[in-house]
Please model this.
Amino acid sequence: MKTQEIVVKKVKAWLEAEGKPYQWLADELGLSKGMVGHLLSGNRVLQPQYVEQIAKLMDTQVVDLLRDESREKGLLTVHLRGTISNRRSKRELDSLLFAIEDYIGLNDQVN
Model:
């Protein structure tokens, strides 16, 4: 998911949870309601200064607003086609899997 989509999704959910309309956000950002509508529909790019202002309004950090939690919910999976035909292939695949797990820090999460 693109960063713009992540931020827009979180902002929309927050506005709904707080019971705040687009007009409120527009007033806080110094924009028109129409412009906020365009920003939250993805028709316009959400500029960094607005992301910072929105994070402050939401009482969160910018990094948290940009974080994609959907990637953190589950482990990544790889689907291989075919079969491993010999022991050497099996060892090489195991070595590759270990390198991937080490790189992404999976061992740190498990322990």
Observations:
- The chain has two domains: 3-70, 75-110.
- The CA atoms of residues 68 and 101 lie 20 Å apart.
- The two ends are 29 Å apart (CA to CA).
- The chain is about 65% helix and 0% strand.
